[in-house]
Amino acid sequence: MMMLIDCSGCRTPLQLPHGAPCIRCAICGAVTHVAAAPPAEPSRGAVQPAPGWGPPPPPAHGRKRAVVCGISYRYSRHELKGCINDAKCMRHLLMTRFNFPDDSIIMLNEEQTDPYKIPTKHNIRMAMYWLVQDCQPGDSLVFHYSGHGSQQRNYSGDEIDGFDETLCPLDFETQGMIVDDEINAAIVRPLPHGVKLHALIDACHSGTALDLPFLCRMDRNGQYIWEDHRPRSGVWKGTNGGEAISFSGCDDNQTSADTSALSKITSTGAMTFCFIQAIERGQGTTYGSILNSMRSTIRNTGESAGVGGGAVTSLITMLLTGGSLSTGGLKQEPQLTACYQFDVYAKPFSL
Predict the structure, then answer these.
(1) Where does residue 171 rank: exposed (0-12), middle (13-18), buried (19+ CB within 10 A)?
(2) Per the database record, which ranges form the Peptidase C14 caspase domain (predicted)?
(3) Is 128 helix (H, G, I), strand (E, B) or coil?
(4) DSSP state of 24
(5) Residue 304 burial (10 A CB sphere; 0-12, 13-18, 19+)
(6) Alpha-carbon distance 212 to 221, whole Å?
(7) The predicted structure's pLDDT at residue 300
(8) Could you report the per-residue pLDDT of 106-121, keeping only the tens digit for each?
(9) Rounded to whole angstroms, how far apart are CA atoms 235 and 188?
(10) Radius of gyration in angstroms for the set of CA atoms belonging to the chain, rounded to a whole number
C-alpha cells in the first residue's frame, strides 16, 4: 500500500512508494524523510527479525509500477466519452496479462473519491514523479494517458515542427497544460540503467509527446525508417541509461478518435482499443507487430466507416468548433518513439 505524507517544505501531500525511506517533492524540491516506526511489542513465541531488517527485496524479475490516467472532462464542452473506459481497460490488461499488482497502479480519473487521484495538473505531475521515484534495475514502469492533447508554440528551437506537444489535465483551463519537455524531464531523463518505461499516449498531437530522440516512421506496407528528432541545440532528451519507448495515438499533426466504431458497444480511444486488441489477439510479440496491427485496424475501420468515425480528442478542434465534436473516418496513424533505434520486428515486446 502507498502512504501519503506532507512535503517538509511546501506541505504538498506526496505519495510515498512502499518501503521508500524518503521522497523528493516535484514542486519545491525538498526531500522529506520518513521516520522509522518503533518496533511493535512481539507476541510470545513470535520469531524476531534480525537487526536492520527492512522491507523484503523486490522479486528477481523486478518491480512493476504504473500510472493510468483517463480524463472525460464531463459536464464541459470538451467532454469525451471513452477515456475512463480506456483507463479501466488498461488497468485490467496490466493486471491480467502482465502481472502488475493492483496496489502498484495509480488510477487517475474523475470517478475517484480520493482527491489526490483526480487527474488535475498537480496530481498528474505528482503521479509521474512517483512512477520513477527510487526505481531500480529490473523495474518495469508504465504511463498511460487517455484524454485531450494539444500543441503550443515552441520558442527554443528544439521542435522540428516548431510546436511543443501537450497533455490537457482536468483543470487545464485554469492551471495550464503539461508540456512534452516537462514529461521528458519527469519520467524519461531520470531512468537509470536496467529500468524500462513504456508510455501509451491516447491523445491528439501525441506523436512525440515524450520528446524521445527517435521516431519510427512506418508506411502502409510495414516498412519503416527511424527519424532523428534530437534537438539541434544538443539538449539530451534520452534517459540516464534506462529504456523508454512510447506508443502514441497519432502523429504530431493529427487527431485521435474517441469513438464507438471499433468496439461497436461503447466509446473508447481508438489507440487504446487497438493496442489492447493487438495484445489479446496474439499480435503483440514485437514492437513492429503491435504498431502494424494498430495502424491496420484503424486504417481498415476508417476506410469502412467513411464518415461518422467518432469524436476527435483534439482540444484545438473542440475549441474552434465551440465544443462540437468533429466527425469523419479514422485518419490517425499510431506512432512509436524511443530513446534509441532498434529493429522493431526483432525486439520482443514485454512490460
Answers:
(1) middle
(2) 63-338
(3) helix
(4) E
(5) exposed
(6) 24
(7) 84
(8) 999 999 999 999 999 9
(9) 13
(10) 21
pLDDT of 56: 44
The packing angle between helices 270-280 and 287-305, to 10°, is 130
Q: What is the DSSP letter of 197?
A: E
What pLDDT score was predicted for residue 15? Answer: 65
Summarised one tens digit per residue, pLDDT across range 183-215 is 999 999 999 999 999 999 999 888 789 999 999
Q: What is the C-alpha to C-alpha distance for residues 131 and 186, in angstroms, rounded to an integer?
A: 9
User: For residue 341, with 0-12 CB atoms within 10 Å meaning exposed, 13-18 middle and 19 or more buried, which class applies?
Assistant: middle
Helix (H) or strand (E) holding 165: strand 163-167
CA distances from 244 to 35, 45, 68, 69, 319 (A): 33, 49, 17, 18, 32
For residue 4, the model assigns a pLDDT of 66
Strand pairing partners for 145?
A: 69, 201
Name residues of the chain where pLDDT drops below 70: 1-4, 10-19, 26-28, 35-62, 157, 159, 161, 257-267, 302-330
Torsion sign (Cα): 271, 272, 274, 279: positive
250 CB neighbour count, 10 Å cutoff: 29
Length of the chain: 351
Distance, CA of 278 to CA of 281 (rounded, Å): 5
Amino acid, single-letter form, for residue 214 = F
Q: How far apart are CA 130 and CA 106, in angstroms?
A: 9
In this structure, are residues 169 and 119 in contact, taking their beta carbons and an 8 Å threshold?
A: yes
- Residue 186 CA to residue 127 CA, distance in Å, equals 10
Alpha carbon distance 239, 229 (integer Å) = 15
